[in-house]
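Cross-check.
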Amino acid sequence: MKKILDFLALKRGIMTILLMVVFVEMGEKMGERFLPIFIIALGGNAIIVGLLNAMDNFLGAAYSFPGGYLSDKIGYKKSLMFFNIAAMVGYLIVIIFPYWQTALIGAALFISWSSVSLPAVMSAISKVLPDKKRTMGVTMHSLVRRLPMALGPIMGGLCITRWGEINGIRAAFLFSFTLTFIAVFIQYFLLEEVKTTPATLINPFKVLNKAGPALKHLLISDILIRFCEQIPYAFVVIWIVKNLNHSPIAFGLLTTVEMVTAVLIYIPVAYLVEKNKEKKPYIAITFGFFSIFPLALMFSKSTTALVLVFIIRGLKEFGEPTRKALILDLSPEENKGQVYGAYYLVRDAIVAVSAFSGGILWMYSPYLNFVTAFVFGVLGTVYFMLYCEEKRPEGHIP
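Predicted model, tokenized:
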């Protein structure tokens, strides 16, 4: 058993973090994936849905660097508790005030939980695990996240079927509040922290310069790929439920197909990365799947075709943990939380523009939305293949 736990990088601190992630993500995905439908039901339109997606990316950007700094400054345990309590307040706003305007306000506190908490989680992984096990540690985090991401939308779909689009989603957020409360309890009593010297706040752009050109090339390619992902992201559920007339439960089941696909590939890919000691080929394959998804979705109408498309969407996670591990590898040891936060600050601030433009493209034509996303995916994949490296250039001093 010990050998299995060591192989999977499951030390006590990592297992506690993963347990917390299960509870928080389960709650978040029960309601968050159906927010576009909630907003439409409350009188919003495609522009408001595009604004929601842009807000998600913008706040993810705005929160990432402070999240990383807070993790380096006060520790990942206190940081994660703070982020979870903020999410609980957001859930309460949506539950108590059923208006699309207040849904946006509440979403500002919980919709970017993954972004604001990710630097703290990555910081914890980098401190608890040795360098050679970081890819597996990040992989286990990504794998465990997919379990609630697979089950949450199904439970949310059941709530909508039982109580309707408005009250059903409010009920889903009530479950979200309860599960996040349990996560805070787990963190407080079970999560131990590796003590380090508190970091000094550094300008995020200087932090990225400190990391060197290799990380900048990865960032540029990642931005292009996120344009591909985010332009259609908020409209996938609308396309399936409203345009193709499938049920919310059917969408939840398709999401489960996506997450199961991701879960099945995580550990084998992490093993291959650790064995071959190469990350670039796996990240390139991931970017390819990102690119294919919007075009495949556009041409898929039947249930069978949609299942295949969501398998493709799951395969885009092929090298995502590897990409995150590469960011850690390219970051200075003393500022990993801030570098990670700065990376996502720059990436998501730029990608927020594409998320909002997705609403405009959708109002003109859903097909234009999907094709534009595909073009950005191809550009990002080609840039990554041509310019990205796995190591800092020799002579670069972080």
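The mean pLDDT is 83. The first helix runs from residue 2 to 7. Passed to J.P. for a second look.
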